[in-house]
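Q&A log
Question type: sequence-to-structure
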Amino acid sequence: MRRARKNDQQIQLFPDEIDKLLRELKRVGTRADIQYFGIRTKNVLNGPDVTGMGFWSINPYVGCAFGCTYCYARFAHRYVVRRHADNNRLDEELVQDVSQMDPWLAFERRIFVKQNAPETLLKALRDGGDKYLPLLDDQSILIGSATDPYQPAERNFRITRSILEVLAMHPGLKITIITKSPLITRDIDILSRISKHSELSIRISLITLDRELARRIEPRAPTPESRIRAIERLSAAGIDIHVNCMPVLPGITDDPSGLEQLVKRVSEAGAHGISACALRLDRSARDRYIPFITKEFPDLINRYKNSYLRSRYVGEKYRNGLKTFFSEVTQKYHINGSMKNL
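Response status: OK
Response body:
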């Protein structure tokens, strides 16, 4: 087992038995149609110049097994496959396998594990380094901008937990984690340590309380009930917990009574705030989402084609109406609310 020492603290970076699984490129987990493969990355902490946003990002995995139909991050998978294939770091059989799948499906079924992410992060955050110093100047880190850091792979590989161990060694940071998984409560011990000397916020993604509807649009994601329980546990532990009602799907999850019940329930569970935004349809999301709508909600397909014909965003009238409603309902249930235009 490899360890790194800093300030008389020890951290488990990568257990030998997990390393062995990755070196052998074996499928693990309980779903026969999902395979996990180990890759090594030169950089796991990407700055605003890479993200194109005003934050730094960490993504422990490439791809996500939850299979949310609206996911905007699918583009990242093909890019990583191509880059590693060009550098001869992926087996030809694997490259061929991925190339024969629809890109949106490969994103869900061929998951890449950044096996050296904790060590790479530890090097990036060395004292006085060109990445560590900006982070002490009120710049933030987002974990899970292009994957869910607590998807099923995390139960076996524990990459996210190891990353948190590294971050726990570096005070004065500003960290946000986005996930749909109650697995995050496994790490309450580390999250509590981090929150003592850094600014930490957890964002649980939840767009509906309707279990059957959630299963249709987020096929392999944890149930809404399990996410509510995670909110309750995190709140009880004194950890700053918010909810991302993102995206609101026009004609599907925007029913006023359903949204009101969601806001009410997360407020009761102890969430400190809730944010919402309407669906954004980029190219990578459109290739999966429009066929899904055609099959599952055929009466909505013309509405979607008209609404998103000229832009990735739904019309301004819809967004303004959602903003007004959301402001009223969050005030009603005494929870901080905000609208995003992502």
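Response note: The CA atoms of residues 176 and 201 lie 5 Å apart.
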